Amino acid sequence: MRSPKYTILVANRQTGAVRRFTIARRPAFLTTLAILSVPVLIGLGARWSSEGQIAQLAQQSDALRIENASYRQATGELAEQITALQSAMTELGSQAQLDPEMKRAMENLPALVRNRAMGGDTAVAPPALASMDSPASTFGILKDLLGSLETRLQTVRTGVEKQQALASATPSIWPVVGYLSSMFGNRKDPFTGAPDFHPGLDIAANHGAPIRATADGTIESAGYAGNYGNAVVVRHGFGISTRYGHMSRIAVRTGMVVKRGEVIGYVGATGRATSAHLHYEILHNGQTINPLRMLARP
Questions:
Q1: Which of 98, 239, 260 has its CA nearest to residue 172?
Q2: All residues at 6 or more sequence positions from 186 whose CB lies less than 8 Å from its CB, including other chains
């Protein structure tokens, strides 16, 4: 069966000309359907495109949210570490405070001892402040600051440890309770009256009075030592040692570790002595120095 046909008349009002167009029903239907489908397809395409963009934006938003959360967590941890390091340096600063008498004694040490003990200044400069216009640069600055503080903390800790070690090794207290009967330096020999150099202090005290180590150290020798009688030598480190002579009795043995203030012997008159007293010397690399420079005020 043949498909019905349709005739379309198109008239020109000015000329009166009429044109006829004949088309079959099926092509006409398909053409109309195609024309009507175009807006629908455009709308569906726009909708699908919008849904894809929305989904992509949602994924990007989730990624940014996760990234921001990680960034906040990381920067928070860095800030906590920085605060902890600053607190540690503050604490080290308080530990570095010395007793005035101990500080004075350390200042009176030979400059060579102090310089070798403390070493040079290794302060670390803070990182340069870069632009903070992005999270990445901010995070980088915090990391640089943290690294700088860690290095500075180690430097401060090392400096404090050196200072504390030198303070512990510095003879600063009186070894016995008594009074000075002979000073450091030139004098007349008490036995012959001839000019003599006295390498230490003589501190007169009651027989049997306790004698105490004037700084932390290790007993280098303990025993009878000729003119010194019963004597003890304590090695304190940094080339510093102390000698205690004329003891009636020794309370330590070689190799023992002693702390400042511990009893190492008792006052006597052994060796070349005219009466009960303590002969006390401070030596640096074997050379005697005046103990009065180091002793705290009685």
A1: 260
A2: 195, 196, 197, 198
Within 10 A of 28 (CB to CB), how many other CB atoms are there? 15
Q: In the chain, which ranges are continuous DSSP H helix?
A: 25-95, 100-107, 111-118, 135-169
Q: Helix (H, G, I), strand (E, B), or coil: what is residue 26?
A: helix
pLDDT tens per residue across span 166-223: 888 889 899 999 999 999 988 888 878 888 899 999 999 999 999 999 999 999 999 9
Nearest partner of 263 among 175, 201, 178, judged by Cα? 175
In the block, tokens 């330590």 appear at 252
Provide the whole-model pTM.
0.59
Buried b (16+ CB within 10 A) or exposed e, 190-210: eeeeeeeebbbbbbbbeeebe
Q: Is 258:236 a contact under the CB 8 Å cutoff?
A: no
- Calculate the average pLDDT of the chain: 76
Residues 6+ away with beta carbon under 8 Å from 103: none
Query: Judging by DSSP bridges, how do beta strands 263-267 and 210-212 pair with one another?
Result: antiparallel
Element (H, E) at 203: strand 201-204
Domain residue spans in the chain? 5-63, 73-169, 179-293
Instruction: Residue 277: name the closest of 159, 181, 163 by CA.
Output: 181
Considering the domain 179-293 in this protein, what is its CATH number?
2.70.70.10
Spatial separation of the C-alpha atoms in residues 267 and 212, rounded to whole Å: 10
With residues binned 3-state (H G I as helix, E B as strand, rest as coil), the percentages for the chain, rounded to 5, are 45, 25, 30
